[in-house]
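Issue: copy button drops trailing tokens. Both records pasted manually instead:
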Amino acid sequence: MKSDFLRIGSGALLAIAPVLAVRGEKPAAPALQHPATRPNVVIILADDVAWGDIGSNGAIKTYTPHIDALAREGVNFVNGYAAASTSTPTRYAMLTGRYAFRDGYQILPGDAPLIVPPENLASHLREAGYATGVIGKWHLGLGDGRLDWNGHISPSPNDIGFDYSFIIPGTVDRVPCVYVENGRVYNHDVSAGDAPIEVDYERKVGDDPTGLENPQMQKLPWLARNHSMTIVNGIARMGWMTGGYRARWVDETIVDVMTERAVRYVEEHASEPFFLYFATHDAHEPRVVNPRFEGISQCGVYGDVVAQFDYAVGRVVRALKEAGVFDNTILIVSSDNGPQIREGYRDGALENLNGHNPYAGLRGHKYGIYDGGLKVPFIVSWPNGIEGRRVESTPVSLANVYPTVAELAGVGFDSGQIHDARSDASVYLGQSASGNVIYMQNAGGQVLALRSGKWKYIEYPNGRRELYNLEVDPGEKQNLSSTAFEICARLSDLMDVFRSAEDSPPGI
């Protein structure tokens, strides 16, 4: 099936992905050479770390030596995109191959029911013989709407494909401030006398102090009123919580607790194919630095928590190498969306950036539809299967991780179960990918965008359209929709099919 080309200006060509004759038809998978042993799969996902925070993308005041080393030796995708400009929708799309806007999913509260279906990347790999684990920030819901934090929580990641889970239920600024291991709150036992946990996002529960009523008890003052509720570890959170005092985390040690769990998982499963989804909490608010990382960057607390993320990456890489499995591991390092420097707390991040620009000249921020909120670090390593030492400009997306990993690992996938995603395996392998189109949404899914080559097209519910040539205008300053009519029309047609598709839309 051939691609259409639209001639622009003085002979320049715009590659437009073909409109498939049959909905749901996928491009043929390239023939791949696989080692005798199936590769391990490790996804390390940061929380709010920006494209411009990484040394390999030009940052000079942050401290990211381990990520930079991966970028040098592997593939640095300089046009890597999140599926959405905020947490839950990106993670949902990455695990399911389906955009969150189709199901009305947005940012979830800490007590939301589980939204990930049984058919997902983890269950797919487990069926193919992989051990599967998730460690870190979850933010995809737990239970069925009647959540009891004092007993067995079901459904949980363990019910949808993960053999092992050790997670933060929502975000670090939300209650409950506890870890959940394999469906139970870690270090919490009511039968042993622990105070029962109660969580509510509508009304105050218990007598725990709040940030609104007790500002003197805070080590990190709240800025937004929705971050002024129950104080845990000197920080007011979103939502109210009481009980579970022995189980509550200490923010300063989260990086170590999570990273050591990830390392242990690698060590325990090195003798078999495994999938590890390791989702760190840095650099999400509240930004609390482990003392050994204080001042390690040149841009204050923001840079220091980025360094914490880099440490976590480096520690997992070391574990993979010490276990002798690094070369046969597909390792993806990325972030769920771009940053919002000042949001819920007065942490001094904005005031102490010292000239560092996480956005690196990109327009917008977390929650929006411009590249400042959507373009993310995206580094891939697999020495046994992917030629490294490459900088790749072809756009790729976290939304496409499911079929991409399945194809690279040689386990195949059912396109009927993956509504939106298409494999980026050919791009990872350095093969031609002309006409590659990726789609993205804002936080709520009301605004959609696509990128095709150098072009980015944005469409709003009210019919407003924007078109940018990112090759010459990476800051998305000059809207060309009123002059480049033909380009806008063709991309609009692709968007119409994508928005309304009952099966897989064309070009993705």
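Record 2 (pasted manually too):
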Amino acid sequence: MTDSSPLDSFIPPISNACGPGKINLLDRLRQWPEYEQTRNERSSEIDRWKAEVLKRAGRDAPRRVLFVHGQLPGETGSGVYMQQIARESIRKGIDMYVLSAGYKTLDESDINGVPDERIFTCLFTPPGETPRPGAVKTPISGMSVVMPYQVLAYRDRTQEELLDFLTVFGNLMAQLVFRLQPDVIHVDHLWFLNGLARLIAPWIPLVASAHGTANKLIIDAPRFRELMVPCVSSVDHVCAISPESVQECQEIFEIPPECISSEGYGYEPELFNYKGVDRFRVLRDTIRVDAARSRHLAVSVGKFVDWKGFKEFAAAIGHLRKRGYDIMAIIVGEGDPDSRSELEAFIAANGLGDTVLLPGKVEREVLPDIYRAGDLYVLPSHVEPYGLVLMEALACGTPAVAGNVGGPPSYVPQTLRDEGLVVLVDPIKLTPSGAALPEDRELYGRSLADGMESILKKKIDPEDRFRIADEMKALNWSRLVESLAGIYDRLLGKALSNDAIREAGPG
């Protein structure tokens, strides 16, 4: 947004008066001298909002939703989630707008199927560059320490840097809220932006998606716990991606069970589906890999970080080759240079340099053919909040092996497990700190190899692949958006029937 607004300074600078580790966003913002005055003045805004919503409802108009995502779209699982929710919502007639993060222009935040005029970008400062006027002074913050693009990890962000981010992002969100008058605000992730949304428009129903990263964020940066918990606990409803995320919401953020639903992810059936593929051509032309040197191919996709389990996957390939299987593997993705170097060193140390290949990142449109080219897909993660890549691979008809942890047990059809087309192996044991001991890594690698061997012995044919893809058809984005629409309508109906709406406040 480029136009000025009286709300440009809606979020004033916040001084660090609470001391290190003691900043509580909602409590601190309540201490503004202007807060009570601003809140009282907003009673008229509430009246106008309610009248506008009722007017739209009277015309049977679509619900208007502002979807807030504080990272780059499409670069991570949650970024894909945001893109697909926005696109599918518009397809289904929901009046959806998106506020996301970016470094340059709208182009890098382009969402296929979402008109440019519905996308707004909060600009951040690329690493090593001088901050521009109106932009966040620091790089985008990643919900994980390792991201597929350059970020400033939250654990490394100072209080001053965090407050700068909250101020700039909050001002833009405030402008959009008062311009668009949304019926619902939906924030992607459980984090600080939930508190900002509640503070800016306490009368608007607030939904948040839980991607399973909030707990890791608090572990990485425990000094932010006192800030995050009240921000997250202020939401009206949490859409968790897995049963584990539901438990996390209850235990860490004390969200009542009736305010949480397990919604999961979805996939794009027009992109991810089963059809025949020329393995050698696909791998040769897309990622410059010669697949002719082995009979079997195992595929995995993800960012290079230890908990993704790629070392154990490589070890499993080594075990299978020792058992006489002519098999190679490709791991598609990238991470920080140190993580990639560690994985490369492990592969070399185990004599797998010509067998386990790391072709790097590919365009999303290429992924379906890579999934189809594999004899099997492997998701070797130590922990896995959801595992969207596994869902996509199955939708492409590829049998799979995964750890029996996190999201996969919640969405892999039991029929595929019973037929041995998907094998969920015992998860790796982790210490309380989340680390894995060498002996447990070795055991997990052998378990992955056993699961892969059981699939290879089945001699999967095209009919099996069609059946795998067919079993996944119900788990598409359309299903998820229909569920979200029901949540929006329920919360909005509750808000409109609340005679005390003017008394609503943060927290």
